[in-house]
Amino acid sequence: MRPPTAEMSILSGLPRGLDATRVGFLITPATSSAHHDAYRKMRREAFVDEQKVFSGSDIDDVDDDPRTLVLVAVTPEGTVVGGVRLAPQHGWGIDHRSGIDTPDIGWWTGSRLVVDRSRHDIGIGPALVRAACAHASERGVLRFEATVQRPHRRMFAHLGWEDVGECEIGGRPHVRMRWDPRRIERVAERTKSFLAEALAPFRQQPGGLGPAGFTGDDGVPVPGSDVVAACDAILPSMVDRDPEWAGWCSVLVNLNDLAAMGATPTGLLDAVGATTRSQLTRIVRGMAGAASAWGVPVLGGHTQLGVPASLSVTALGTTRRPVPAGGADVGDHLRVTVDVSGGWRPGYHGGQWDSTSTRAPHDLRAMNAMVRDLSPRAAKDVSMAGIAGTTGMLAEACGTGAEIDVAAVPRPSGVDMGSWLTCFPGFAMLTADRAGTAAPTGLPRDVETAVCGRLTATPGVRLRWPDGVTTTAVNSGVTGLGRA
Predict the structure, then answer these.
(1) Do 333 and 452 reside in the same domain of the chain?
(2) Among 292, 323, 354, where does a domain finish?
(3) How far is CA 49 from the centre of its chain?
(4) Which residues, in sequence order, are bridge partners of residue 74?
(5) CB distance 248 to 284 below 8 Å
(6) Which CATH number characterizes residue 241's domain?
(7) Do 52 and 30 touch, CB atoms closer than 8 A?
(8) Distance, C-alpha 122 to centroid of its chain
(9) For 174-231, how does the pLDDT look when each residue is reduced to its tens digit (9 = 90+)?
(10) Are strands 343-344 and 353-354 parallel, antiparallel or unpaired?
(11) What pLDDT, on a 0 to 100 scale, did the predictor assign at position 349?
(12) CA-to-CA distance for 306 and 29, rounded, in angstroms?
């Protein structure tokens, strides 16, 4: 195998004026015992022998954790000239659902950053920090922290880290630093932040964007009736890529909208455009399968062939007591009820969770009756903004903010928290009600429910961690539509 060349070092972060061919290095996960041995030797020389931060050895439980990732800086000749490790935070407690001691809930720390003392001036340290942030993001980390010696604070701050307090380790002053991946905020911005401005013309007409109390709901009560209507479009790229799944989802998301309002579905209308007859057949097959599974007929609609792919569905239902998204108040508890069965849809890993396509019809119908039977003060089905972003939308409609207890959120085994809080989860309902309100009953197997937060007076969405720290996920309202 050829050694890495200087040109491969895209994360080197070299200071201006330095010759990359002289100081080139590659940041890579440690893949051999030689890498690990060299890294630990450098750590011992720096933290035990020279700085005396530790006595005897700096090896700890993090080194024994199989989840720990070690990154090393390697020269073209194969010499390790720096390293850092990152791992899930240790010691915060036991997950009461799984019984696992300190599971990965998206809270990670970086530590033992070390650089060959003869090469401190060529950007290895910043490159290792940047690479650690990139790998943390890839693993769905939502809170990434490091405790660094005070002289290194400036470097971390320059790289976008926040100073969150001082402490002392081994008699030396240290600073606790935190880096925000902004994953939740970016998803909310991409999927929902434009709505208020884009939809403003509708609000100029009386009744535009729905009756009072229901502004911002995906479904809306039709004035003067007990009918609730909902409408969703599927991304054209999804229709092109996976027509049958797009057809299934067009029914799923609309029936979820009705379910969030406690409505009983009565029928569907569709508007379908397809490039070819084959594509149309697959779209219709997906819709028909879903309509049959939920027992809701497609009543009619509009179909075109030989046009760019498009798919939109309207769902109709009835209820005399529609549940609004904005009916709760500060102090009310947030509950998430979510189907954790299934898996990532092929081709949409980390973005779309498929728990419905293999469910029995009676399970699907029981899940969609949950809000109707529970009759909470507020409810919203989880959309493409994910659990966290949809929580922000519900809070915004209520005129409040929200705080999510990260460790309490039900989650499938092996799924990282960052993906789970930002994906479309198939079936997930957020409800808000007074503290002590009874949990839903009669849920199908693998549908989990838990109180996982509360509504607050501070706008936006914050994540509460097991150590009591809160971090900001979304600074303010998600859609800008305001109180419902």
Answers:
(1) yes
(2) 323
(3) 42
(4) 26, 80
(5) no
(6) 3.30.1330.10
(7) no
(8) 36
(9) 999 999 999 999 999 999 999 999 999 999 999 899 888 898 778 999 999 999 999 9
(10) antiparallel
(11) 96
(12) 49
Round to whole Å and give the CA distance between 76 and 21. 9
Terminal Cα distance for the chain, rounded: 62
Hey, is 117 helix, strand or coil?
Answer: helix
Residue 87: domain span: 6-181
Beta bridge partners of residue 298, listed in sequence order: 268
Confirm whether 305 is domain-assigned. Answer: yes
| Tally of structural domains, the chain | 3
Do the beta carbons of residue 296 and residue 284 sit within 8 Å? Answer: no
Q: Which two tokens mark 97?
A: 């659902």
Check whether residue 401 and residue 441 sit in a common domain. Answer: yes
CB atoms within 10 A of CB 421: 29
* Together in a domain, 63 and 81: yes
By the 8 A CB rule, do 268 and 285 touch? no
Q: What is the CATH number of the domain that holds 408?
A: 3.90.650.10
Is the whole model's pTM more than 0.90, yes or no? yes
The pairing of strands 219-221 and 264-274 is unpaired
pLDDT in tens, 129-158: 999 999 999 999 999 999 999 999 999 999
Residues in the chain: 484
Domain boundary among 323, 350, 372: 323
